[in-house]
Amino acid sequence: MKWRENAGCISYDPELFFPSGGAEGTAKQEMFALSICRDCTVVLHCLKYALTARKEVGIWGGKTEKERREITKEWQKRTGQTKQTGIQFTEEFYSEISTYV
Fold first, then answer.
1. Which long-range contacts (CB under 8 A, 24 or more apart) does 85-91 make?
2. pLDDT in tens, 31-48
3. Are 68 and 17 spatial neighbours (Cβ–Cβ below 8 Å)?
């Protein structure tokens, strides 16, 4: 994953991208992490990785866990895929992924 070398988050503590604790502190931490992602040149690569690797926790590709679940559900709805049948992200999906960022 050579793209990680160019990630905007590379110089930050990784814990920043895994908010936990009280609601107010978590919201502030999440907002700060997302602001780093907004300026990142490899955010699409990161989101693609997170969706493909089924990253369930943390900020990845400029998206929260909830936002990534929504993207996955939308793709499932469009393609008729389920968790039971296995979710496959196709090249069509990856060509459209920029609409989610």
1. 89/48, 89/51, 89/52
2. 999 999 999 999 999 998
3. no
